[in-house]
Please model this.
Amino acid sequence: MYWVSVFTEAAVFAILALGLDVIWGWTGDFDLAFYGYLALGSYFTFVLSIGKPVPPVEYIIGWHLPVVAAIVLAVVAVVCVAAVVGAIALRNLRGIYFAITTLGAVSALYLLVENYTPLFNGYNGVYGLVNPGQSALNLTYDGYRVLFLVVVLVLLFLAYLLVQRLSRSPFGRMLRSVREDERAAAAYGRPVFFAKYRAYLFGAALAGLAGGLFAIFISAFNTGAWSPQELLVIYAAILVGGRGNPRGVILGVFVVYIGFIELTRYLPSPASRPEFGPALRQVLIGLMLVLMLKFRPEGIFRERPGVDHGPGPAGHPVSGRIGARAGGGPAPAPAPAAPAGAGDALSAGLAHDGAPEGPGSDDGGPG
Amino acid sequence: MTTFLVTVGVGLATAAILALSAVALTLEYAVSRVVNFAHGEFLTIGAYVAYSTQAIFHENVAAGAVIAAAAGAVAGLALNAAVIERFRGRTATTVLIATLGVALIVENVLEMIYGAANVSYGYPQGSLHHVGPFLWTTSDIEVIVAALAVAALIYLLLQRTRFGKAIRAVSQDRALAQVSGIPARRIITQTWILAGAVAGFAGFALADTVGTFGPLLGFNFLLLTITATVAGGLGRPYATLGGALIVGLVVQIAGTYTSSAYELVFAFLLLVVLMLFRPNGVFVRRGTVAVRA
Model:
């Protein structure tokens, strides 16, 4: 049962990472508020499904919905919050301001949740969501947990299919063109703000879903269960797996969660200092993040280039680009990768169509 | 009215520390074009090193301040050499993530050394003084005076010395400064040492003012620091001082009339307003500056 629990947690975080990768891997923005969306998704799932609060416990809403409906509504609520945060953070369209704004948002959210008890019972948090529907399904506790793992894995697979499909759609390619060169994309008539905004909301929705599943997984949630810095593990996992590559991201999460976290669980802590081991683990996560960024920013598994080998001249670099220019207006299907390279003529000229969007070129921008 | 004036007084003390921290952050940004998310760790390191050595110097405040500044200077030097320079040429976001990783490392190394629980200084706070309409402790006054002195020194350094001129040149265009015969790399290293020293001292002042602190002292102060820096305009040292004054006062006053737990919430709201209406700083008229990437 221990491993069922480990795999469930890893699968939930894989869904979260898929959402985060849409924002970070595809559009290049560093979102620090993302763990807040998981937390909000969890909190909303609780308050929508565990019924009225009994004093001294207090929280908003207090409905008694079936847990599936609660998760759906929680996702909607999370997307609404993300709509506000994203609109502010993306407004300046500058990477560092985005990071600063999202850090501010998540810090404010954390303090508000912790100190304003009428919201989600403050520091003590919400609890009481123990295996919802277990008796209706006529299952044992262990049977329920196994079923839950299966459900989470199925949802992860569905999320993967969705992300993969989106990644190969014109929308996914447009986002990458925005990531590679925002100005060039804008010059080619791509709606940069709305493209990023839609990606942000999509990512937040996955975080909300992960939050809802996390609620069932841990059955109690308070400010001790999340902090904005937890997010760095997810970023490290995405970096290990390979930014912008959904399959790599999922693999990265499983490698980091199961390999790394389980192995470091047995780090020694002196009896008088129980925080020593966990702190050492955080140090190692920080080191992993910095070293991956420095030496292998494209990850173990690279983003797969050239996903748009359509028929015709698409495989031919020069004619493909000229075709896109001659076409004008909304570019035909094989073209959207071209604006990405167009701002950086050298790399576009050297690489074949679609290749300029490799994640390594994240750092190749002018300046 | 009395409450309000006392609040303003406390706000000025907060603003003084904020000004030190924000000026250091803005100097780092000016020469390296990096928003250093490990900046808070300079403050924390300064505070902890002063804590470790306080017994040696018999709780002498001046010795504590100097040691904290020295520790911060070493931290600044180390961060620049180990991370910032090595990530040169990478996007601003990439370097920002790397510094955040460093912040995570430093916080947890400190936790491994000192434990997660708060520690407290034995430095005397001194008695309360009525200065004009304000009510300050001795250490409040020391902090404010020291902040003014440091601000004046930085002004003189930037405006009147060759080093300051070189900093200004590098912050405008590193490559151009380099071809003009300015040793850009050395100037940047020295700027990080300076910024680290100022931040380390700010950490000491902060820890002394709040009394008890833990490994997250500096990181929790980072959002306020960034807000003050953005209020002044990233990379603009003098405007940053004004930004710190505004942010310190607004946050303190708003916090006093609601709850001090919400101070950062107000800082965030202020940050949002700045981002929306004055992304280049409150002292800049719209359209007068080119946006710096």
About this structure: The longest strand of chain A covers residues 126-127. Chain A has a mean pLDDT of 80. The radius of gyration of chain A is 22 Å.
